[in-house]
Design a protein that fits this description.
By secondary structure, this protein is of the alpha+beta class. The chain has a single domain, classed as BB2672 (60s Ribosomal Protein L30, Chain: A), CATH 3.30.1330. α1 packs across α3. The termini are far apart. 38% of the residues are buried. It holds the Pfam family AA_synth. This is Amino acid synthesis family protein.
Length: 193
């Protein structure tokens, strides 16, 4: 199955503070979006799983592109997430095709990444905003890393396209004060705690 990519867009935020004291080191939060032709647009297809395998190289390309935009050091990445916006001629299940190719590619690239990759999938029109959830890559319950990043591409997705996204962060929220499990308290190394 052919994966027809129209374009790839990258955005990186350099967060220096969030109204509190300036951080010693800014937190980078970034996303990459691949705009892909939806081969299933406009019709119901029962067996679509073959596209998951076809998307695996794109998952690795997007992960590598985003990591490079964020400085290139996999050890600097603390959080991640993914998502997709399916154009109006598609269905939610088409966006779910990104779970394995996107999530596993990031985990492979980052080395130790035990936590499930949080995700959001929705149907949308051109310019639809996608809020990608983020959490800690090794322990989903690290409360300081419950965050997100907003991604959109002005001309995407068209009705017969899917916008597949990945997101990474070099830290959690800038001034966490809500308690709970902290990054230095990860002890079980089970993806949760």
């Amino acid at each position: 199955m052919n994966v027809d990519v129209r374009k790839i867009v990258v955005g990186v935020e350099d967060v220096r503070h969030d109204g509190g004291p300036k951080l010693d080191k800014p937190i980078l939060k970034g996303f990459v979006a691949a705009i892909v032709k939806n081969p299933f647009a406009g019709r119901y297809v029962e067996d679509i799983q073959g596209m998951m395998d076809a998307l695996k190289p794109l998952g690795l390309e997007c992960s590598t592109t985003l990591l490079k935009a964020m400085g290139g050091d996999p050890k600097s990445i603390e959080g991640y997430g993914k998502g997709s916006v399916v154009g109006t001629a598609g269905e939610l299940e088409h966006g779910a095709l990104w779970h394995v190719p996107g999530g596993y590619a990031m985990r492979e690239l980052l080395g130790q990444a035990l936590s499930i990759v949080p995700s959001m999938t929705k149907i949308g029109t051109v310019g639809t905003i996608l809020d990608i959830p983020l959490h800690h890559k090794d322990a989903a319950y690290v409360r300081s890393h419950f965050d997100g990043i907003t991604a959109f591409v002005a001309d995407s997705p068209r009705p017969d396209e899917i916008m597949f996204t990945l997101a990474m962060a070099t830290g959690g929220r800038p001034h966490p004060r809500m308690g709970g499990l902290t990054q230095d308290q990860i002890s079980k190394w089970d993806g949760q705690r």
